[in-house]
Give the backbone structure.
Amino acid sequence: MNKKLIIISLFGLTLGIAGCKKFLDIGPENVILAEDALKTPEDAQRLLVSCYDVLGNTFDGRTQNIAELLSDNLERPLNNLDLIAVHDREVNFFTSTTNNIYADLYRAIFRANTVIESLDVFEGLSDGEKARMESEARFIRAICHWWTLKIWAQPWGYTPDNSHLGIVLRLGTDATPVPRNTVAECYSSIIEDLVYCYDNLPLANGNFASKYAAGALLSQVYFQQNNYSSAAAIASEVINSGNYALVQGLDSFHSMDNDIQFVTNPEAIFSIISFSSSELVDFRNEGFRDNYIPGQAGAQLSFSQDLFNLFSQGGNDPRTEAWISVEGGQNLNLRYGTPEDSVFLFNIPLIRLTHVKLIRAESLAELGTDLSTAIDDINDIRERSFGGPQANLSLSSSATQVIEAARLEFRKETVGEGYRIDQIRRLGAKGLPITVRGAPWNCPGMAIQFPNAEFTGASFVGNPEGGCD
Amino acid sequence: MRSIYSLIATTGLLLWSAVTHSQTVKGTVSDDLGTIPGVVVKDVSNTVGTTTDLDGKYSLQLKPGKTTLEFKFVGYQTQTKEVDVAAGSTVVLDITLVSEDSELDELVIVGYGVQRKREVTGSISKIDGKELTKLPVPSFEAALQGQAAGVQVTQGSGLAGSSSILRIRGLASISAGGDPLYVVDGIPITQSQFINGNSGGMNNNPLATINPNDIESVEILKDAAATGIYGSRGSNGVVLITTKRGTKQKALSVDFQSRIGIGVPASLPNMMNTEQYLQMRQEAWENDGGTGYVWLPGVRYNTGTRGGASALERAQKFEQAKQFNTDWVDETVGVGLKHMYSVGLNKGWEKSSLYAGVTFDHNGSYLEGNSFRRFSGRVNYDYAFSKNLRLMTSFSQSLGINRRIAAAWNGGMGLAMSTALPYFPVRYDSAAIAFINPENAEVGDWFLGIDNPVGVRENINWRSEERRTIANATIVYTPVKNLNIRASGAYDYMDFRDYRFVPGDFYPNTPASSADERPTWTNNWTTSLTADYTYQVNDDHRLTFLAGAEAQEQGAKGYSNIYYQFINGSPYTSDFETDSTIRIASEATPVRWTFVSSFARVNYSIKDRYFIQAVSRIDGSSRFGENNRYGFFPSLSAGWVISDENWFAPLKKTINFLKLRAGMGRSGNADIQADAQFSTYSPLNNGITYNGQPIIYPIQKGNPDLRWETTTTYDATVEMGLLKDRLSVTFSVYRKDTKDALMNVSVPSSTGFQTYWDNVATILNQGVELTISSFNIVRPNFEWKTDFNIARNYNELIDIGEYTPDAVSGGTNDSRVIVGSPIGSFYLMKFSHVDAETGLPVYLDQNGNQTFDYDNNQRQYVGDGLPDVIGGITNSFRYKNFDCQILATFSLGAKIFDSSGKRQLGVVTDWNMRTELFDRWRQPGDDASFPRLTLDETTYGLPSGFPWWNTSLFIYNADFLRLRNFALGYTFNLKNKKIVKSLRVGANVVNLFTITNFPGLDPELVRDFENPQDRNLSPNVTYLTPPQERSYNFSISANF
């Protein structure tokens, strides 16, 4: 009897332990469960800032360098194999540098989508705050889609109806693998986001996205579609806002922003912010800083001879000497630091007034409607460069002359920033006889390959690799 | 058969009768069935001996007086008898030997209990602890190699303390841990190799601190009938380690063992010298159309970068380079010193018993500056309070100190095989300064164009320390006869620290000394309560019940890094915290997981020859969400001792034992990231800001529907003993079906995440195992025994749903999951041949068409690292007091991917190359192994910026037969046994030679891995992995 009792009680105990549910309820430590993470308006703002945080890591020069390497502005990189693959237009799906940038761009998009989808979850968020947050999130989504489209797809006009493959549009947090959208779809989605942003973002928003950041970006998008009237119209609104002024003098980003807390770049419309305080130094410029500064063997990235010749032609453009230093057989880019001064902090003005003015100038000249404004825009830039009117376009310049000047200034002013490739593609798609380092503007490798992981689980069609020899 | 033995015996008799004197002892040896020929009859001190003749008769001449005779025959209990023979007399001594069911009565640890071997219905291999101390290995598990059928032990690299990989009956997991569960005295111990990640080209091995001298036996549970009692964790087998315990009422007995030895590399790489490297490089340059001299990596030119430097400067540097020729392999490799001392004592009293052991083991590897030292102590103490209440305690403490050096991709010998070019100096002299042209360096400075293996070794103080405590206590209460209730509590604590100190004056531009410290503390608690009851229904029917419950909790916390900075150039200090001026600590994410389980086992024995076992276990794991938290793991098995059937009697003279057993059951695996089920966000105060403002961000996408990975196993086995166990044979067939195998799949980056845990794959393992043990010769002064095991396993990935082969990968190792192929297949471009006309490599695409284009989209299965056949053969000899043991292990059917070969034998880069490359194409018509040399990867059809020439050219046959251990020993005849009771001296060589066609370093290899998935998927991939060592050792063991 005793025996049975013991056996029964033992089984009871066994089940008792096994049934101890609490013991198995172990949440992860030092993190917050997703369902508990997004509660308060502060959480919402922090999540939103985390999108900018990803932008800060992605547009610290890394992304711009990829776009720039596809153009004709840079020499073949010194020895970074992945960057060499980009330059040689032979990115394959294992190229980790570009794969990581791609992942970062979509990480920002995922977070932005999370913000948008969670707006009703945060308790006590006012409608005004919701609208601001949604529009900031949509700005981030748009700018990331835009740069992804610039690098991973053939441009607007590559096919007559733009039915060729663009990129994956991610407009929600759903994680199912999806195929690529067409370029036409990508443009319309980006424009839709930016128009919403333009209508809802505050006029000024500290270091974060503002109405005119969306407007300026929108002008780039329209311009890339050769939609000159829309590009010029919105560019004018940005310029006429009076919020931004050209920097005087030859702006090297690093010298301008040495004390970033105190000096604001007056022409920056949207910037990546490096931050320093007594407790913290937060660099967000390594992509530029580290690749353009020469080490023992030289600098990883340097200007092409083609670009150097463009600057030095005529021998009187002060930007040549201000921005380029010829050392050890390389054309070093001084805009992101000098060999002597290799540790510094500077913001990266991702969208700035110079871009907007040059886009407006070229658009107006293309439209032939307001040449004098176009000429003024160009001359503003030239006077800054030359310190006087000696290189100005004459007020009687033809539309063609204005267009040519706008294109030249655009290429010079944006060196290193990843915009030259847009120009090449736009002009190529317009039918101009343009080649990039000997290859057609639309050769397959100009749209780089997607990461290997993107091919998982869906009938995903990648880009052809190579083919630009 | 018997007649052959008799013949041998007669010959023996004739030999021995030559020494005839007048005193004789003679007689007949028989058993219950009749007389036995071939029985060894000898005097215990080995001076005289004989064997019985065909009629079982013997006769032996002795000296007058008392002599102790020993009667010994395989399958019988050895008998000793003292005879007193007066001078000139003849004594008749007939002996009846009692057959010994030793093998069958041998107790086998089965998990939460023991069973007689005869009753066991599952597949269990038992390895005596003595086998583990026979050869010096980096860690005890390496000594299991070749000892048990179906247990693949791939020994780690030559790094001190490196870990071996055990695969029991193949591999049934992909992303979840594929190693067996290690259980020490009932405690599932902390066994992750990734506590310190992949640091310095090595994974920390938590098994290295276990002292092999403390181990009584190791039982390897292979099928579900055996592993079922471990339920959810048995999918990949269970290794039960039982430590030594004291014997009751025993006088003090002390065992002493010591071993000293040296280790050298089992093989060395054939790297090029300066002249050879320059010649190859120049040829590549000229092949590519370069004129003049080739530019040299690591050298600074004044007139331009790389090939852009002036022809004159290139020519100068090329000539200057010839002054230098550093043999970097020689600089990193030496002779490792090993010495081990172990004392174990065993004492028993009336109510208690004690085993205590201390061991110091210094295991120096052949890599200069690398050693693993283990200090360990153990006390196992048992005390009986009363007849029905006993306490059993175990306590062990060990300290493992690994003097680290960088290896593989991280430095040291790895650099000697890669970027340490022969024209680089170890230190600068004026000629080297003129040649290398560094921006700033003085005579005597270390050359730091690479992470100079010698400079790093001599300046950077790097070591890991692991303090391990394993303690447990069990109370056994026996309230009534046949009922035992056990309550057990166990604690396994690990304090692991990795320290790396860099003096400030070593690297230029970093004047301050700095250090990194990575501490991890792991706590592992297990408690269990079991009850077993044996119910003897009647003489023929016996039931044994076991029921129990167990709970386990394991947690780890620590720092992913603590960075210290000291005042400029400070020397090494042992107190980083006090002496540093800056301390930046990054806490690691703490990990915690729990298990609760309840289990029951019923054994039903009928007539002691029919055995049935049913096991069920229910496991709950914190790793799974509420809906899938509990898993049910049943198994059913049966055994039938056919040879005990009456009708079998006529056969029994030949087949003395025949048993058939079969079982089926389910086991599982839950060894994945502890919080994979949760979608998580960073904590609020994560320290990350943007624009000075705090952020929170999503970390991972969880899968709340995760569930157990389950394996259903079927096993059928025949065990047979022939000629009184002179020959014993075990043959098994098995099949393991794994479904819902956990995969950490890559998801499209556009989802915002990189990976996601899911139950995806279906895996098949099936195979056969054969074990043969044979006493070939048993004679008074000579014995020869052979143990042989061989196993064949077939592994196939049956299904991975919609995923592609790239869904999971083994780290950087190009191993993938390909449906229809084994797990961890190499997925590469197929290499065909070198085109004799152009010297270019010709590839084969997926359709088998030849092409010059290397295309990653055309990768295909080109082999896998899983062997088809593995095994071991041990021949043991004894001649008089000499003993000799020869263990050879073999593996067939696996391939090796020499992942570093693609850089050492491919595009000419800043890597040094191997001399096999001399067999390259040079002119049209050449039939060469390697294509024309080039500095430009696109020559080989590779994409620009992609010198990773991942082709099947570097897939090799990994078949090998290795003479794992060759040991000789001598046991002294001690006249006076008062103090020293036994004494043996021995010598052995480990890895004396290896027969293989693999042209690389070592056909048996374990490289460093990124995570468990990499460890599963990338067996037999080598990347600058140091080869195993060959060691020469002397040992002494004594019992007092």
About this structure: The domain at 38-259+344-455 of chain A is CATH 1.25.40.390 (Serine Threonine Protein Phosphatase 5, Tetratricopeptide repeat). The CA atoms of residues 254 and 377 of chain A lie 25 Å apart. Chain A touches chain B through 96 residues (CB under 8 Å).
